[in-house]
Each structure stands twice: as structure tokens, then as C-alpha cells.
Amino acid sequence: MSEDRRSPDLRMTRRRRTSAVVIGVLLAALLVLPWPQNMPKPIILGIIPAPLFFWVLWTGAFIAYVAWIAFRWDPYADVVRRNAPANDDER
Amino acid sequence: MSVTAMWIALSCFALVMVALGYLGHRGTSNTMEDFVLGGRKLGMLPAFFTVTATLFSAFSYFGITGQYYTDGIGAWIQVATTAAVGPILYFAGTRIWLVARRYGFVNVTEYLSDRFNNRLVGLVAGLIMISALVPYMGAQFRGSGLTLDAVTNGGIPYWAGAIFLATVVTLYVMSGGFRSVVWTDVVQGALMYVLLGVAMLILVFSATGGFSDLMNRVGEESELLSNPGANDLFGLPYLISVLVIFAAAHFTMPQLQQRWMAARSHTTLKFIALSLPVGTAMIYIFCFYIAMVGVVTRPGDERPEAIYPSMIIDVLPQWLLLLAILAIIAATGSTANSIVLTLGSMVAKEYVGRRYNADRFLTMTTRIMLPFLVAGGLLVAFYGPSTIIGIIVEITWPAVFLIFPTLLAGLYWRRATAAAAVASMLISETLFICLHQGWISIDLSGWHPAIPAGLVGVLVLVVGSLMTQPPPKEHVDRHFAMFEEPAQVSV
Known about the structure:
Chain A is mostly helical and about 90 residues long. Chain A contains three helices and two strands, in the order H-E-E-H-H. Chain A is elongated and about 55 Å long. The termini of chain B are far apart. Chains A and B meet through helix 1, helix 2 and helix 3 of A and helix 5, helix 9, helix 10 and helix 12 of B.
């Protein structure tokens, strides 16, 4: 494969890799942020205290991020296809 | 609760578990791959139940409810740790899954020995894991003993509850190995989710007028509902420490590594990465509201770890109470079974199998080791630390976390060497123990002692690897060539 033809793929891979690192670090920072502090109010919908509500939100966002890596980007797809093709048939 | 009714329910539970164990036995051959990994055919739904049932144990029912009760809402950080495993599981997990399939590895210590081309790496990692996980298994027996003692008012004494669980687990794991463990985990996991959820609803609506009323009664000004919590525990250094230590340790835990290796397909592995935090979140939400009911109805309880079993005795109808107690026993059993099978296979492969490598002999050795390891867990249950959360936070996860740098270097860094890996594990574990015990007096400003120990471990690994001779290139290629583009390999 010529360098010219590979470049857009490489650029895309680098862009995705950078995005994955930046988003991952950002979301991980949110996961450990003890915010809001000393503020039990408001209680969202009357049943979820605000810190728990935000933690649930960040956790949900992190799961979506993992789903994007695993199913949308899937950088190991080719490696798996080459090395375990017969076994990746589960639906 | 009637002791007779409890014993009848326990007997039925034991019969079901042993019958499921027998079902697993019928489909299992005498090869290690089959006995320890179920022939690497773990599908998505069983994977979800066996991974979460393995992870959640007496710790979830007692430790987390107790932590919500005493320290407040920040206990949720544990859910974040399971979400953070996702990327590690996708990237590092895919690599170890592929390598393990190609070379027939059945546990993580076997992988480490082969990757570093030195048996000592697996031996040292194995010793650390056994030292860390036997107490954790003991915590499960302790959970069973505490529960049965509490719900029967001492009618079933602590020692009898602990020995009951140990015996049942030994019987069904010896019978069918991994398949038995997964079959029982599916049942035990389903029991855990359904009954914890039902118990939460009944507790909330019987003790209060519903969730809104519960939150009002806990008090909007309560420190439990905000950070940094009632005892100022949940500051930034603590939360980062927990996230890093637990996410890395969840991935490295040998009993969970066997589940990654046993996945039928890459899709199964990806599914585990997504479903683990979802299952964890459900358990932690249930535990949060249960703990808040405890705050309202039992303020100042001196045994916060026992509030869940104590509360359900008062409100659940007899038949549902029996099921809820069985769900607790099931949760403890589903964690202990995985640990004992994993440790049994490690002992067989690392400490016995090097001399007698016949598959049938190794499988038999794994079976024989099970009661001895269970006996070790029982010793911890009878003579070990007094609080379950203490056992887990203080010993198990940090100790396994300090193996993570070696595992990651093995997967990603060709230059990593055996001498540096062994030095990294030994030095970081020693430093952790010294810091934890206060033998080295340093102000860590809220950071967990495993964090500086881990940083030193990484430093030793990197510097040591650069100073020592790596394994031969042909050997390292066995582990790396499959991840490189075909064109790169041929060059």
C-alpha cells in the first residue's frame, strides 16, 4: 500500500486516538471530582441527591465512551479478525 | 427467625447448587482448559452474571451498605471504578484474550511466566495473589457466618454459617469446575439482583412513605448526602486513589482474568466492558437506599455492616426473608467459588505442573487443592480482621493492583524484563506494607499508600528493564507479532 493511500487512514487513526485520550481523561476527572461539595440540596426529582445525580450522569457518559471505543472505533477489529476469526461469531 | 426453617432453606439451596455443579460436571472433560475455563465458550449473558456475581459478595451487602451509612454518598466511587475498567478491558483485555487462546494459557500467572520467559515472575505474582485472595475468600465465609448468626439470633452460630458455605462451595466447584461455577453464578447473580431490589423497595415503603419521604427524613442538610461525606473521607486524593487502585486491580484479579480468557468471542469481551458498570450501578443504588433506611430507622447503630440483615428481619414476610437471606449467602458463595477455582488452578500450574505437566494430572491437582484453599479462607474468617471492608480495602485490591504495572508492561512493552518485573512487584509490595503499617512514616495527605508504592514499582520496572537483558527476540515475538500489521511482521 502506498504512503499516499495510507495517510488519510493514519490521520484518522491518530485523530481518534487523540480524541479517545482527551475524552477519557476528561471523563475520568469528572468521575473523581467530589462536586458539589457540602451541598446536599437540591435533591433531584425529590429522590436523588445532587452529587449522586451527577455521578450517575458521568458514569453513564463514561459507559457511552467505552461503547464508542469498542463498537464504533474498534481498533482491534482487524487484529481479532486475523487471529481469532472463527470465534468472533457470537450475536 | 426459626432456626429449623432456615436450615431447611439452606439445605434446599445446597441441593440446588450441588445439582447445578453436577450439571457442570457432566459437560466437563478432564483437560485444564475445560475444567478451569469451560472450554473458552463463555457467552454474553452468563458472562454478565458470572463477572458481577464474582465481583459482588458479602462486601456489597455489608461493606457498601455500611459505608453509605457511616461515610455517605461517596461510596459510589466504586461504580466509577468498574466503568474505568472498560477501556483497560478493551485494550489490554483483547491482547491477553488473544494470546491466551493462541498458547492455551488458563490463568494470568501462566501468561506472565511465559511472556517474561522466566518462571519466577509467575511464581512471585502467584504468591502475592494467593496471599491477597485467601483473606478475601475468608471474608465471604465471614459474611455467611455473620448473616446466619444475625437472622437466627445466634440459633445458627457464626462458625456453622461459615463452614456451611465453605462446604457447599467446595462440593460444587470440585464437581464441575468452571461450568459449575458459571451455572451457579447465573442463579446466584439473578437472586442477588432481584432480591436486593425487592428488599430495597419493601424497606423504603414500609419504613417511610416512599423515596421522597425517605430523602426528606434523612435530612437535606445531612452530610451523608453530599461530599466530602460525614467523616470528610471523600476528598480528591481518596477518590483518585480508589479509582486508580480498584480499576487496575479489577482488571488484574486472577479470577476475573479467567473470565476475560474464557470469553467465547471478542463481542463477549466488549459486552462485559459495558455491562459490568451497569450491573454495579444497580447494586450500589439498591444499597444506597437500603443504607438511608438504616439511617432513618436505626441511627447510631454500632454495627453498620449488619444493618441490612438486621432490617430485613423486621419487615419482610417469612418466605421472602428466607429468599433474601439465601441471596446474601449466594452472593458470598459466588465470589468464593471463583476465587477457590482460580487459586487451585494457579497452584496446580505454577507450583506442581512444572514437573508433571499431564493435563489430567493438573486437573486432578486443581481439584485436590480446593479443600485446602477453602480451609485457609476459613482460618481467616475465624481469626482475621474484624470488618469485611477492612479486609478488602486494606489487603486484597492494593496488593493485586501492584501487579498491574508488570502485567501491562508484559502486554505492551517488548523491552520489559523478568528481573525488573520481579523487583517491581517485590519492592512495591514491601513499600506498601511499610507505609500501610506506619513502619515508614510519611505524610501521604489523603493518598492511599498503594499509590506511591505503585509509582515506585513503575520506576523500578522501567529502570530495571533498561538495565537488564530482555528475553530473546524470537520469544517476545510470540507475544507481539499477532498485534502488528502483516507487512511489519514480514520485514
